[in-house]
Amino acid sequence: MTWATALYDVPGPRTRHRHAVYGVLSTAVLVALLAWVLYLLFATDQFTSAKWAPFAYKGIQGLLLRGLGNTLKAFAMAAAFSLVLGGLLATGRLSDHRPVRLSATVVVEFFRAMPVLVMIFFIFVALKVQPLPALVAGLTLYNGSVLAEVFRSGVNAVERGQREAAFALGMRKTQVMAHVLVPQAVRAMLPAIISQLVVALKDTSLGFLITYEEFLHAGKLIASNLDYDLPFIPVVMVVSPIYIGMCMLLSWFAGWVSRREQRSPKTEAVAVAAAGPGALLPGGEPPTAPGP
């Protein structure tokens, strides 16, 4: 027996059978695609020992580890500076002073619209900044502008009554933001913030275009010094899973934070005193029932 809901009808036997067929066909297509890719890899001798032996050398392993460390270093710096810049720009956009609000809006909209690679190249070439500061500055300007909108939207998403009640109690705007609005907005902002940090992590790979020795640059150096010609599939199969793993780890963390923040806050049980006799009357005698 099927039960109708307010939004849709629960699928019946024929619909469930049709969905099962669709699922089987989709799975078969994906398996066939995976088998075809594996066939091409084996047919082009991508799993021969000669193509994988270089990764056993300590020099190449050290190069990959240094590149990974530089990637994490650039990401950590860009993430920290982006959060600070985003907070400052969001504060400016929420300001009551029109010149400050307009200035912050212009900065946010400009750097949000500007491609990250263009900013990195401009800072590196035109301003003659070293690769690491140029990469971090470009990532900070872009991601900081995006995070500013995340912060502003999170604060504005708090119910208007919370703001009005705080002002009615005589609190200043700084106190309202710090003690009322921001703590409530954090629950809505955290998943979006972490998701934007995933974007910053992926964009660190743009550093290889300005000769910053990050992880992708290390993979490029290894590929350019191998004894065989294109395609350098083994290098891609080593570098790509690590990038994907780091991004998936941050994405999983964002999902975990989202699920944790959606839970109801835990409350501790409060001990309740046992019921005692009622309060005495003004005469000092306990209340008595009226006589028959």
Question: What does this protein structure show overall?
Answer:
The structure is a single chain. The termini are far apart. With 292 residues, this protein is an all-alpha fold. It is flat. The model has no long low-confidence stretch (mean pLDDT 83). Helix 7 (160-168) runs antiparallel to helix 8 and helix 8 (173-203) runs antiparallel to helix 10 (233-262). The chain is built from ten helices and no strands. The longest helix is centred in the N-terminal third of the chain and has 36 residues, at 58-93.
Stretches with pLDDT under 50, minimum 5 residues: none
Strand tally is 0
How would you spell out the order of helices and strands?
HHHHHHHHHH
Class derived from helix and strand content: mainly alpha
Main sheet characteristics = none
Q: How many H/I helices?
A: 10
Radius of gyration: 30 Å
Distance between the termini: 63 Å
Helix content: 55-70%
Strand content: under 5%
**Overall mean confidence score, pLDDT:** 83
Shape from CA axes? flat
Secondary structure blueprint with pairings:
Layout: H1 13-43, H2 49-52, H3 58-93, H4 98-113, H5 116-126, H6 131-156, H7 160-168, H8 173-203, H9 215-224, H10 233-262
Helix pairs in contact: 3-4, 3-6, 3-9, 4-6, 5-6, 6-8, 7-8, 8-10
Give me some keywords for this one.
single chain, mainly alpha, flat, 292 residues
